[in-house]
Each structure stands twice: as C-alpha cells, then as structure tokens.
Amino acid sequence: MAEFHSITIERQYASGGSEIGKFVGEMLGIPCHDHDILEKAAGNCDVPKDMVQYAEETSTNILLFGLSMLKPGRDELPVSERIFAEETKIITELVRNEKSVIVGRCAGYILKNLVRSLNVYIYADYEKRFDRAITVYGIPDDKADDVIKKFDKKRSDFYHANTKRKWSDKGCYHLCLNSGLLGTKACAEIIADVYRASREK
To answer: Among 55, 99, 130, 165, which residue is least crowded by beta carbons within 10 Å?
Structure first.
C-alpha cells in the first residue's frame, strides 16, 4: 500500500464527519482542520466577521454560498472565488508543513497533485442524519428535513463547482464509510488504521 501523507474527509450533512475528523486527529496525534480554514480564508479576504460567525454557528459552508451577494472590487474575482483560492493556498501550506486531517473544503481535490492523501467520504442513512440534526445540532424537528436537503445540495454544488466532479461519486474516494451503521468512533478507528498501515515499512 502506498504511503499516505494526510487525510481528507468529505461528508453528508449530519453524518458526523467533523466529529470523525477530530477523533482521527486525536488518534494519530496530528492536527485536524475544519472551520478554521474557512475563517482564516475569509479574514484574509476581508470578509465581514459576522458572516464567518454565522457560518461557524451553523456548522456549514453557507458562507461560501452567500458571498455571491457581495460585489467584487474592480478587476477582482468574485468574492466566492477569492475565498476558495485563499482556502486552496491555506490547505497547501498546511500540508507542506505537517501531516493533517482536513474536513471538507474539496481538500482531496486540492491536494491531488501535491501529496498522496487518504480521501474519505462519510455518509449515513437519512433517519440517522435526521436524528443527529435534531439531537446534536439542535435543529427543530419540523425544520430538519429542509436543512438536511438544503445543505447536502449546497455541499454537492460547491464540490462540483470547484472540482467538476460529483460529490457523492464513490470513485473519488479511497474509503466510503456509513457512520450511521458503524458509529463515529469506529469510522475514525478504521481511517486511522488504514493510515497507519500505509506508513508501516
């Protein structure tokens, strides 16, 4: 098995992908980057802090899809494109400096020509995600269905817009894990085991 340098995780909404990323980082003793990348990129692009805070509070990439409402400066790219370009720069620098776990941000695609990354897709049955959205994310039960569909679509659209690939295409990943069936800790253990196995001489 070829050696993996870093780990990237794409995830369905309310599948526990961010939690899994944190567990993997703790198990391997390497940093896990998630919303910090978005916040840093937005700051570097002078995006209002309240927009970043809203994105963080909702645990989504909603900021990137609201940026189209902001007008770019003269002779500049649209703000959403500048944000993604900045995220690409941040992710590239992070991985050049250290092994990392990166959640979302199209990181597997960004790193494809830089390092060999273990690319993971986390999904779960709808019922499990519906329950998690309510009990973990605090979404009202009469809003959960709309929230799940909305943010799955936003993540899918964002991924496709920046990679020209289908977000849920299993061929884009090395591992596809059902967190609703396995549980978040078991998923993290599987990812960590595969990563460790690739680095054994």
So the answer is: 165
